Task: structure prediction
Amino acid sequence: MRKESINVSLLMSAVAVLALSLPARAQLTTLQQQEWLNSPAAVSHVGNITGNAKAGAADYRRYCVGCHGELGDGNGEVAPWLDPKPRDFQLAVFKCRSTPTGTLPTDEDLFDTIARGLDRSVMPPWNTFTKQERADLVAWIKHFSPRWQKEKAGDPIQIPPEPEVTPERIKAGEEVFGKVQCWKCHGVQGMANGPSASTLTDDLGRPILPYNFTEGSRPKCGETDRDIYKIFMTGVDGTPMPSFADNIKPDEAWDLVFYLRTLQPHNSVNAKERQIAKQLGLKPVSPQ
Amino acid sequence: MTSPRRHFAGYLLLTFFLVAAFPKANALPAFARKYGLRCSACHESWPMLNYFGQKFKDNGYQLMNDRDAPIWQNPSYWPVTFRITPIWHRISTGRNAVDTYGAGGAISGTTEQRIESSGFDLSGLDFHTGGTLEKNFSFYVLPSSDPTATFHFETVMGRLDNLFGSSWLNVKFGKFELDNLLSEKRILTLTGNGGIYQTYHFMPVGDGNIFGQIGDNQLGVEYMGHSANDRTRISASLLSSSDGNIGLVTGANSYTGFFTGSQAFDAGKLGVERIGFYAMAGEAATYYRTSGGVPIPGAGVGNKGFERVGFVGQFYLGPHFDLQVVTQHGSDNVWFGQGYGSATNPSNGTTCPVSGPCGPNATPGTVLPATARAPSWNGATFEAHYVYSPQLIFIGRFELERMSQQATVSTPGAPVPGNLGNITSYTIGYRYNPFMTNRAGFAWHNEYNWMHQDGTGPVFGVENLNSSELLIGFDFDF
Result:
């Protein structure tokens, strides 16, 4: 009897821990959504374009609803067959941001994500939309979560000007790669085969793979050096990739960008980094 | 039962009927099954592509993420779709040549009569299969039948995309639809005259050039390039002048070039607007060498020229309404105008190497009439769509083809009306898709077409022809 009680207690505790560890889902009622849509706040601002949520509804239903669902909860009709799963807009947790970890993205972040698409998912680049249509969609997406009513988007992080690539910087980037233990997930050669790689899960407990720098696919949140800089200074919310804003200095972050470029196969932007790495005879970092 | 209760029960029954009869769009579809997108993501209304679908096609049936290779598909998935259309239609054709009978039942002459017929019918059957063989390697094969299930290859092509990593370098090879922005193969209408674009097939009366039909799939190779977001598109094709007929049965060495270019603009709340051009210039045989007086297939020589040029426009006026425009100026060499080109032997229709009218063979020594001249014409197609939702679309089309120069000079003894062969056509209709998934398409289709052609009465030669067709049916694929 006592053993059974302990088992039940353990089970309940586990359920409680699991429940607490899951991201909080706060869904608006239909009435609340309507009020929000009728309010002046149901807009987005991207440059000089103002997106209107109601105007985005038709495009959302035509293009997005199959994956993201009528309710924006990521449970569209094809979601069961997709991996990774579609974004749950009710949680308002977004991977690609210019804002600090834990904060809401800017409208422009969402606007850019729609056009860029997300590699290693079925989300294609929706760059056929007009800017107005994209801004409307951003406004519509925001109506799914009460977070947008209660919180403001975070302030975009400050990105210092990109310095010149030098051998010293690449060597320094290699040290940062080892120091903050990027290799634990991404592997010492950036092949997504670090010792923790197979154990990673996202915030909803679903298995997730780290980025493989060597296979040549586009980084999820953009291909420029600034985009890569942002990834590790803002983190990829909802995934195990944390923000290193408190751990590394901006200068070190640039060093890391340059080092990561050396891990990628030859492309249009990393010729110099790869050449320097070859001259330096860079070897994979040693696990520290 | 009290009256309010009866009303309530009635509403309940009505609600049940509506829900049962018109299920919500919710399933898994072909390319869509691979990628998890609804039909509506790529189709304005199936089968007509929207801008995103056009980009998908231009990328070689790829979304351009890292899920394009077939390794991402379920191994048991074979991308085949069939399409067929059971219909009821009523056709009314004016001025058919009809025999008249005299005493004893002998044919005494011919007159013109309107024939009206109606009944249940079938379209042909299409088997579509296409997709990626590997990232940036794709194919499309379409065996298509007539209503009696006699098959031919409507489309067979392989394509290489994004050569050297550039969206500006794409090549397709085989038999394919020309790069027409307003695609006839994805037309939303189904009647005999409304199911094609008259502008894409127009030929002057008596003209023998069947090779300039930009609506027909052609054999050849096409280079195509586009910007990453498909705003800018260009293409150039080298085609056999065979109108897509296989077996090298036409000219010995006759080729056609087809060129397109277009640019789209971001027009804010109106949508994306596109304007462009196309140009077709080619040569085709007018004389088939003979053996024992019988034309030798594939031995056509005496190439003469033809051209088709025009502008295209896709104009969106908000999320629900768009207008698509295609213009054409066409001209044929004087020999085509006199009926040479399409045929090998007017006395033996079975030897005609190509479908279409069998005309004379321009054997050596043939002399053109003094009144012969190169025919030319202008045409335009205006097609408007009102997209109530991805599941319901209304279609209206107006086409006009106008001769600017007849193939024969009009003389007092042999008058040739300036409007001979002019065509005016109206088509209206709607398509309702009670469901829309990425695996199957089903449309309730209703359409009416009316077409008028000047001066082509078969008996008296000067009367105008009017014909119409009403069509109702199911158009589905799976």
Notes: Chain A touches chain B through 34 residues (CB under 8 Å). Chain A has two domains: 30-150, 167-280. Residues 15-22 of chain A have pLDDT under 50 and may be disordered.
